[in-house]
Queue: 2 jobs
Job 1
Amino acid sequence: MNKGQVFIISGPSGSGKDTVLSQIFKKRPEIVFSISSITRPMREGETEGEKYNFISKERFEQMISQNELLEYNRYIDNYYGTPAKPVREATESGKDIIIEVDVNGAAQIRRKMPQSVSIFIMPPSFGELERRLSCRGTEPREVIEKRLRSALNEIRRAEEYDYIVVNRDVSCAADDIISVINSRRLTVENQKHIIDEVLRKC
Ligand code: 5GP
């Protein structure tokens, strides 16, 4: 059995990444999503264990010291990290997994897993990003400004990724990402067993 692949997905807050991701999982429910452990307070509409496990700073620091994280980063005074075990379990059982992280997290995973594929979700314009963040209405102005500054820094690092998908239309962006995932399955590296299988019968 082939190992599953790791797909890293990043995009600034306000790029529409969450909506694109939920479309991908609707279209491809067999793909696993890596649930991050984070220390920021839960926002309205969020559910424990869906996208995030909300944990204390003390527990997060324990996970760092016990080497339980594949990567982690501090973002606007909170910790965000990817537990290593579920990623290992998914890939070893042949399942593809999507890890949604910021640009620093993506760089850490790429170093540890050079075979991973990384995709950056880009908003159509900075104006649109600003509009989406302000419309959310869940956060104070200074947090929105911090998110905008951080978004600019993330966009400057989009070149580090293997693919850029512009989110002009959610369904098209999800299909673009699914195409990347499908094409990865078709590489020779991933299908060497087929060559052996065909040759064995000749
Ligand atoms: P938010 O607070 O808007 O949910 O997420 C803030 C940022 O944290 C986003 O850029 C998101 O991609 C990133 N993020 C989410 N989970 C992780 C993670 O496990 N590790 C890292 N490094 N970043 C994450």
Job 2
Amino acid sequence: MTHQYDTVRPVNWQNGQLHLLDQRKLPQEQTVMKLENASNVAQAIKDMVVRGAPAIGITAAYGVVLAAKAAYAIAPDSWQTVIESDLQQLAQARPTAVNLVWALEQMKACFAKITGNPVPVLLEEAKRIQQEDIEANYRMGDLGAALLPSSCRVLTHCNAGALATGGYGTALGVIRSAYAAGKITQIYADETRPWLQGARLTAWELLQDNMPVTLLADSVAATLMLQKRVDWVIVGSDRITANGDVANKIGTYSLAVLARQHGIKFMVVAPTSTVDMNLTEGSQIVIEERAMEEVLTIGGQPIAASGAEAWNPAFDVTPAALVDAIVTEKCVVEQPTLERMAAMMKN
Ligand code: MRU
């Protein structure tokens, strides 16, 4: 299949700096934040300058390059010890997406073979992680698109697109590939309160590629399904446990329950770097809780009655039983179970 709709790249290494497209400012402004130290990289992940599980991992990998550069300059013989605190800061930037620790482990695995200046080896590794993520997305795009019928209408949640990955996207990668193949007639995107990743980011990146998008307030999904206006729900993931339970943006679980009730298919698209075989089930996943201001305000403007409190879990867990297909770069796991997930990972 072709991968013709592919213009956005959120993370770039240029002139010895890490360039991040500031996703807090989209779609109004396209601003690039230029970073030169690991501590600022960790802060940028925390603050959602960059977000989305694979993109966070890739960013952290480049953060390790910056950490090693600084540490080697002051302590050429013990840089690996000096960067320990930076590594910890990066690992703790956000808790739910396993891609973050996965990428840091990949980087650490290179340490043993480094003699002398670590920067060239680590930079090559960070670039490899990004490039392999893009290639995994192309592959998942093909595998996922093949599952869709012709004239398919799809609904996605949050942003699991180019902006959330090295490029091309997971859920949006499938939608891009299927659209290029002429299989998709309608793309619905949930606005995704409270951060509005759907309204601000998914809509923006699809329009960058001249793909049509119809936004929905999050509460519209039930009516959309009842009126038979959608065929597949397609989402990404932040962490998938060994049994196939799926953590993703808050609201994903509601969509899965609704989809099952209305006989609509539910697809999760995620690379194997999102699969955490160390956790047996979704209840073990740490769900990030963010500040209540994110719910009480929009764009910095208060929207709630003064004095109201809010609860703001950023993710939820969809049980494997509600998932029709998990698409990874290795293969499609239909009706995921512990055994099928293990077989896919060994593949
Ligand atoms: O809080 P965010 O914006 O980082 O949440 C992102 C999501 O939930 C995505 O769906 C997920 O990371 C998959 S990205 C390919």
